[in-house]
């Protein structure tokens, strides 16, 4: 079957011709690139991509199809998907469906036939920018640019968080109870805690701190999520209360940024962000470097961190940005990267062990 023509228009006025995949609906979103060679299904279903179109720099995508087991949430959250070549057939014994059908099922607009490596270089040199994918044969670029430039990623945490609290039992004997704040949590983050004997209660993003602190939990975890952390003013207020409780506290990605903001530090938008499965990070305490999986466009600024409150514990080896903070108050640490995303494949899961160890001195549960 011949594919419909599609056009990608960038905020800087550049256009790329290709073929439509997935939904044929016109879509405006923030265009970002991901350097991973595999894991496209986990990327699509990562809630941190809400409001964004994903450019995959690796040229062949969809070659092993999709299956229900690899989803990181109940649906994909990306707005659009841009690839060089989409495999028409998934070749894997676990394959349940093709990627094109999957994109159509969840109304995700896509385009193939684009030189995604050239597109990645543009986004890297000029910075992340908005874009539009359209299947219209005739369109006015100036009119499209006006709409593209007016777009802003906002309200995404509210969109991706669950509406009601949900309890996940421990895998095996329950030793600890963890409250996990859902700002866009990935399923494997929950599993990493379950596998360490934790019963995990996942709370909606706007749950008052008092409701969490009265639940008799041994520790609190703040999850990853999408968007500008500074937009979450009310959530930051509640995070501050969780911090002041002195319960063991571990935060990842957006949660790391929210806790930094709650304790007086600042964040800034990065030129093109870190998105991929091979970002080197150095643990300053142990002098070791780890390969990490990352997905973020904002970062905590090192100079804004009050040394009386916290110290930088991890840095990005490539450019020195903040990748982790260790707080002065007991049993509180955060990281920017994703230890649950199996880089290495388990190089950074020691952070979950550290969190569990920090809770073992807490109250016992039957």
Automatic annotation (TrEMBL):
It is an enzyme of class 6 (ligase). GO terms for biological process: 'de novo' pyrimidine nucleobase biosynthetic process; 'de novo' UMP biosynthetic process; glutamine metabolic process; L-arginine biosynthetic process. Its EC number is 6.3.5.5. Residues 1-176 are annotated as: CPSase. Pathway: Pyrimidine metabolism; UMP biosynthesis via de novo pathway; (S)-dihydroorotate from bicarbonate: step 1/3; Amino-acid biosynthesis; L-arginine biosynthesis; carbamoyl phosphate from bicarbonate: step 1/1. Residues 4-134 form the Carbamoyl-phosphate synthase small subunit N-terminal domain. CDD domains: GATase1_CPSase. Pfam families: CPSase_sm_chain, GATase. Keywords: Amino-acid biosynthesis, Arginine biosynthesis, ATP-binding, Glutamine amidotransferase, Ligase, Nucleotide-binding, Pyrimidine biosynthesis. The active site is at 253 (nucleophile), 338, 340. GO terms for molecular function: ATP binding; carbamoyl-phosphate synthase (glutamine-hydrolyzing) activity; glutaminase activity. Coiled coil: none annotated. InterPro entries: Anth_synth/Amidotransfase (IPR050472), CarbamoylP_synth_ssu (IPR006274), CarbamoylP_synth_ssu_N (IPR002474), CarbP_synth_ssu_N_sf (IPR036480), Class_I_gatase-like (IPR029062), CPSase_GATase1 (IPR035686), GATASE (IPR017926). Small subunit of the glutamine-dependent carbamoyl phosphate synthetase (CPSase). CPSase catalyzes the formation of carbamoyl phosphate from the ammonia moiety of glutamine, carbonate, and phosphate donated by ATP, constituting the first step of 2 biosynthetic pathways, one leading to arginine and/or urea and the other to pyrimidine nucleotides. The small subunit (glutamine amidotransferase) binds and cleaves glutamine to supply the large subunit with the substrate ammonia. Composed of two chains; the small (or glutamine) chain promotes the hydrolysis of glutamine to ammonia, which is used by the large (or ammonia) chain to synthesize carbamoyl phosphate. Tetramer of heterodimers (alpha,beta)4. This is Carbamoyl phosphate synthase small chain. The lineage of its organism: Bacteria, Bacillati, Bacillota, Clostridia, Eubacteriales. The gene is carA.
């Amino acid at each position: 079957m011949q594919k419909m023509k599609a056009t990608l228009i960038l905020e800087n006025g550049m256009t790329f011709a290709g073929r439509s995949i997935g939904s044929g609906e016109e879509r405006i979103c923030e265009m970002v690139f991901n350097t991973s060679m595999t894991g496209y299904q986990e990327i699509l279903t990562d809630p941190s991509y809400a409001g964004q179109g994903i450019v995959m720099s690796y040229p062949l995508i969809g070659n092993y199809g999709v299956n229900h087991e690899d989803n990181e949430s109940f649906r994909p959250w990306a707005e659009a998907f841009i690839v060089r070549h989409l495999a028409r057939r998934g070749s894997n014994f676990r394959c349940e469906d093709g990627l094109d059908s999957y994109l159509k099922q969840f109304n995700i607009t896509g385009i193939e036939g684009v030189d995604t490596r050239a597109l990645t270089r543009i986004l890297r040199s000029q910075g992340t920018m908005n874009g539009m994918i359209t299947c219209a044969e005739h369109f006015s670029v100036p009119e499209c640019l006006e709409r593209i430039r007016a777009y802003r990623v906002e309200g995404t945490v509210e969109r991706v968080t669950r509406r009601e609290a949900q309890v996940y039992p421990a895998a095996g004997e329950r030793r600890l109870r963890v409250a996990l704040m859902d700002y866009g949590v990935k399923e494997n983050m929950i599993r990493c805690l379950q596998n360490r004997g934790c019963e995990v209660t996942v709370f909606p993003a706007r749950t008052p701190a008092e409701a969490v602190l009265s639940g008799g939990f041994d520790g609190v975890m703040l999850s990853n999520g999408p968007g500008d952390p500074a937009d979450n003013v009310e959530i930051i207020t509640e995070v501050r209360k969780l911090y002041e409780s002195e319960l063991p506290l571990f935060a990842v990605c957006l949660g790391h940024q929210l806790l930094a903001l709650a304790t007086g530090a600042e964040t800034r938008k990065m030129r093109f962000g870190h998105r991929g499965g091979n970002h080197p990070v150095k643990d300053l305490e142990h002098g070791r470097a780890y390969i990490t999986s990352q997905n973020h466009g904002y970062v905590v600024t090192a100079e804004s961190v009050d040394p009386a409150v916290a110290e930088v514990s991890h840095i990005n080896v490539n450019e020195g940005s903040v990748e982790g903070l260790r707080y002065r108050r007991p049993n509180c640490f955060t990281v920017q990267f994703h230890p649950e995303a199996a880089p290495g494949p388990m190089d950074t899961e020691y952070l979950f062990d550290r969190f569990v160890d920090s809770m073992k001195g807490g109250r016992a549960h039957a």
